[in-house]
């Protein structure tokens, strides 16, 4: 079946996709007292921990010192970490959850006529909704520092919207690779988890890519190939006053994300017959 036909079938089953996403969200919060609040607590707690480590212990805080300001593009360390951590959390959850998307639903995958790519897409969408539900944390911190006069918001804040779209494409593409490969090779998920731990520090979540460029220019150029570099830069450019947007990273984010999407659809199509035998 061609890629176009597969996409057409997924469009035809879009109502089923909505039902699956709703089911995921209901199951996640069904037995939780706090429910949606956990979506806020998790990134908030981690942001405060990283802010304490880098802001208090290591003294990375916007305070008029040009060298220190450069490390966070002139943004307070708390706001800087929140913006990067929210984007990273969505990516991290998608990769971990899509790896189990087929094996966790093996009975439905084999017995229903639903396009099997949708089991991956529904994970990305449900995690994307949780990501949107956590975005008020980012807005609250922006408002707090705005009222204190420590941040200047500009119209470029709207670039968060294309950042969300690009990240959605990236997560679906990588998920379409993760799901079939993990269903066939259990050890693959362990390798991916190690790579994710390393990837967190190789992605400008708790430090500025621009600051890395002042120390190791070659490393910054290499880091621009990481699609999350451009995506996180889009999250921050509306509150950054010290540097212009990294348009090279943006272009790479778009190209790499689209490449992952087409590669993921190709891999999924090739491995689908073997997956059905394996699960």
UniProtKB/TrEMBL annotation:
The chain crosses the membrane at residues 33-57, 77-99, 119-147, 159-182, 194-212, 249-268. It is found in: Cell inner membrane; Cell membrane. It comes from Leekyejoonella antrihumi. The keyword NAD does not apply. It is a multi-pass membrane protein. Keywords: Antibiotic resistance, Cell inner membrane, Cell membrane, Membrane, Transmembrane, Transmembrane helix, Transport. PROSITE patterns: ABC_TM2. This is Transport permease protein. PANTHER family: INNER MEMBRANE TRANSPORT PERMEASE, TRANSPORT PERMEASE PROTEIN. InterPro entries: ABC2_TM, ABC2_TM_bact-type, ABC_2_transport. Coiled coil: none annotated. It holds the Pfam family ABC2_membrane.
């Amino acid at each position: 079946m061609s890629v176009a036909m597969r996409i057409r079938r997924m469009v035809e089953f879009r109502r089923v996709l909505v039902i699956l996403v709703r089911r995921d969200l209901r199951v996640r919060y069904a037995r939780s007292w706090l429910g949606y609040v956990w979506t806020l607590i998790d990134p908030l707690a981690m942001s405060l921990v990283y802010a304490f480590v880098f802001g208090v212990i290591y003294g990375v805080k916007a305070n008029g010192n040009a060298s220190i300001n450069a490390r966070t593009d002139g943004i307070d360390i708390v706001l800087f970490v929140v913006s990067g951590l929210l984007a990273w959390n969505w990516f991290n959850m998608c990769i971990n959850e899509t790896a189990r998307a087929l094996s966790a639903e093996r009975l439905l995958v084999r017995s229903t006529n639903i396009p099997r790519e949708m089991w991956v897409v529904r994970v990305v969408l449900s995690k994307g909704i949780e990501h949107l539900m956590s975005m008020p944390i980012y807005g609250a911190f922006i408002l707090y520092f705005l009222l204190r006069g420590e941040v200047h918001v500009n119209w470029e804040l709207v670039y968060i919207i294309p950042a969300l779209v690009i990240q959605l494409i990236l997560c679906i593409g990588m998920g379409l690779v993760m799901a079939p490969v993990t269903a066939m090779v259990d050890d693959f998920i362990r390798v991916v988890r190690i790579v994710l731990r390393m990837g967190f520090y190789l992605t400008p979540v708790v430090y500025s890519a621009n600051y890395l460029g002042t120390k190791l220019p070659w490393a910054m150029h290499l880091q621009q190939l990481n699609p999350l570099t451009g995506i996180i830069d889009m999250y921050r450019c509306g509150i950054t006053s010290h540097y212009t947007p990294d348009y090279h990273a943006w272009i790479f984010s778009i190209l790499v994300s689209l490449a992952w999407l087409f590669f993921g659809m190709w891999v999924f199509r090739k491995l689908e017959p073997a997956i059905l035998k394996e699960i």
